[in-house]
Amino acid sequence: xxxxxxxxxxxxxxxxxxxxxxxxxxxxxxxxxxxxxxxxxxxxxxxxxxxxxxxxxxxxxxxxxxxxxxxxxxxxxxxxxxxxxxxxxxxxxxxxxxxxxxxxxxxxxxxxxxxxxxxxxxxxxxxxxxxxxxxxxxxxxxxxxxxxxxxxxxxxxxxxxxxxxxxxxxxxxxxxxxxxxxxxxxxxxxxxxxxxxxxxxxxxx
Length: 205
Known about the structure:
This protein is mainly alpha-helical. It is 75% helix and 2% strand. It contains seven helices and two strands; from the N terminus they run H-H-H-E-E-H-H-H-H. It has helices spanning 2-57, 67-79, 84-95, 118-125, 133-151, 154-173, 180-204; strands at 107-108, 113-114. It has a two-stranded antiparallel ribbon. A hairpin with a 4-residue loop joins strand 1 and strand 2 (113-114). Helix 2 packs parallel to helix 5, helix 3 packs across helix 7 (180-204) and helix 5 packs across helix 6. The longest helix has 56 residues, at 2-57. The termini are far apart.
């Protein structure tokens, strides 16, 4: 009888431990599910807030490029951590805002993407038409963003974009760290920055 009573007590104790374990497991699972739910609901709110901020800040430039395309350039530039005015300055220098231009050296579209880069960019970014302005600027900004990671300095980046990294390095070895091309684009950028500042001041008043 003592052995039977002892077994019953041990079984009851094990049952209590098992039930307690199940309860604790259920509690922590529920807590984790709740916290993950909070994260899923909060993230889109932050994204929408960021998008509204950009939309409120966007001001189109007075250039022969439609506003919808300019806004796309503005958003994409921010996603690549690039300056909108720098991209617009480069486009002005490269193509004069002509979406259809193909140069004698086989550079295509707004940002003059050379044919030597078409294959790997098409594969990387799923680009099908380098004269499509939206796809063209995506390709150009992808290249620029990568160059900024390597060189940081705007003149160096623009020289590498224009001449290729090998061509730019040849000039750097000769202690040439800027060109007419890089200077022209940064001058365009300053002009656009001044225009946006003036326009924003006028809107605020």
